[in-house]
Amino acid sequence: MWFGRRWVILILAAILIAGVFFVYERGKNPTYEKYTDSFMDTFDTVTIIVGYTSNEKQFKEYFNYAHKRFQELHRYYDIYQSYSGVNNVKTINENAGIRPVEVAEEIVDMILFSKKWYALTEGKTNIALGPVLGIWHDYRDVGRIDPAQAKLPPVHELQAAAEYSSIDDIIVDEQKGTVFLPDGRMRLDVGAVAKGYATELVALELEEMGFDSCLISAGGNIRGIGKPLDDLRERWGVGIQDPRASVVADDGLLDVVFINNASVVTSGDYQRYYVVDGRLLHHIIDPETLMPGDYYQAVSVVAEDSGVADFLSTELFLLPLEKSKKLVESLPGVEALWVLQDGTVEVTEGMAQIMRSRGASGAEPH
Ligand code: ADP
Ligand code: MG
């Protein structure tokens, strides 16, 4: 042999030590990079995905998957457009009073989810309110295009529409995978839940694929997975928009809440509205008064499941404060923040603990 035993031992020892250091270094200080990307072609909003992965290729793989999936779910839950080869919520509406429509599992599940949460709550968030919401939608369009023509919908028209807006009448056949609206005048409007429900589906699928540090923001519908892998923070900071802020004048934030493995969803009167005689008429309609809910400027909900948070943001927005608080208190793991009409902010105890204004930061685990 051209080198002695001593050399072999030295080389083996060096390899061993290097190996130990490598493993130690990886465990102690994994090298993750932060990546961000966005798309604008789903749910009428901008979706931003932020995440930490060990390389860009890995992030792109997750991002592209999420984009494709959001596009698919958007087509399924669309009530305004048809897509060739796809039976979606619009197809269900078009076949009201005619026949059951066979739809994807994601549609059946979202409808069953909405019925279940309707039964669990106070009956304010109702996906069968389509006939009423359709009237508001048309009047809002007119009022926005030509403010001089802006009018309130006639009460008798709204009341007539409310007659066929019962969620219990939706017939779902899980075995056959069909949905049927038995009255020809019934219509689904899934605007209050679809975006959050879709966000939750995508988040869980990304997590399953191994994406363990990510934040999805679908038009302010936020879902966090894991924590930022930057060796600094234990939680994601999520901004809550000030409903009356001038975005130009400041950062537009009312507060920041710190979360991991949770969602933050806001319903506000500032998101979509029109004006009649100086009165702001927004898009969240109380099924009892058939008018825009007027208790709050905005309500934000924190819950693990983004579908639940979206459903509840609409529900809590339409309930008076005592009832709204009582409902949140009855739901474990749910926290809320209410911005009253005069700008006063009310929060649950658990919400206070994660708010920047009350001393929370992203540095400590929750
Ligand atoms: P955003 O659409 O801004 O995220 P929400 O989650 O509160 O806000 O959903 C509002 C949408 O839900 C409306 O645009 C409308 O399509 C629908 N909607 C309004 N009022 C109700 C209601 N009482 N029940 C069910 N859906 C509603
Ligand atoms: Mg909602």
What key phrases describe this protein's structure?
366 residues; alpha+beta; eight-stranded antiparallel β-sheet; binds adenosine-5'-diphosphate; binds magnesium ion
Summarize the structure.
With 366 residues, this protein is an alpha+beta fold. It is built from 10 helices and 15 strands.
Could you characterize the architecture of this molecule?
The chain is of the alpha+beta class. Helix content is 36%, strand content 23%. α2 packs antiparallel against α7 and α7 runs antiparallel to α8. The longest helix is centred in the N-terminal third of the chain and has 24 residues. The radius of gyration is 25 Å and the shape is globular. About 3% of the residues have low confidence. The site of adenosine-5'-diphosphate has 20 residues, from α8. The site of magnesium ion (MG) has 5 residues, from α8.
What is the fold's blueprint, element by element?
Layout: H1 5-28, E1 33-42, E2 45-53, H2 56-77, H3 89-94, E3 101-102, H4 105-120, H5 130-145, H6 155-162, E4 171-173, E5 178-180, H7 194-209, E6 213-218, E7 221-226, E8 236-241, E9 253-259, E10 263-268, E11 273-276, E12 279-282, E13 296-303, H8 306-317, H9 321-329, E14 335-340, E15 345-347, H10 349-352
Antiparallel strand pairs: 1-2, 2-6, 3-5, 4-5, 6-7, 7-10, 8-9, 10-13, 11-12, 13-14, 14-15
What's the pLDDT, averaged over the residues? 92
The SS-based structural class is alpha+beta
* Head-to-tail CA distance between termini: 61 Å
User: Can you tell me the overall shape?
Assistant: globular
Quaternary state of this entry equals single chain
Beta-strand percentage? 15-25%
Order of helices and strands: HEEHHEHHHEEHEEEEEEEEHHEEH
- Chemical compounds bound to the protein: adenosine-5'-diphosphate, magnesium ion
Q: Note the main sheet.
A: 8 strands, antiparallel
